[in-house]
Amino acid sequence: MKLFDSITIRNLTLRNRIAMSPMCMHSGLPGGFVSDFHLVHYGARALGGAALVFPETLAILENGMIGPGDLGIWSDEHVLGLMRLVSVIHKMGAYAGAQLGHAGRMLGIDGLSSVAPSAIPFDDGFTTPNPLGEEEILSVIEAFRIAAGRARDADFDVLEIHTAHGYLLNEFLSPLANRRNDRWGGNHENRYRILRHIIDAVRTEWPGPLFVRISSTDYMKGGNTPDDFLIYGQWMKEQGVDLIDCSSGGIAPVSVKSYPGYQVPAATLLRDKLNIMTGAVGLIDSAGLAEDIVQNERADIVLIGRGMLRDPFWVRSAADELRTTVPVPAQYTRYGSWWLDNQPKPVPAPMNETEGKY
Question: Looking at the whole model, is its pTM more than 0.70?
Answer without folding.
Answer: yes
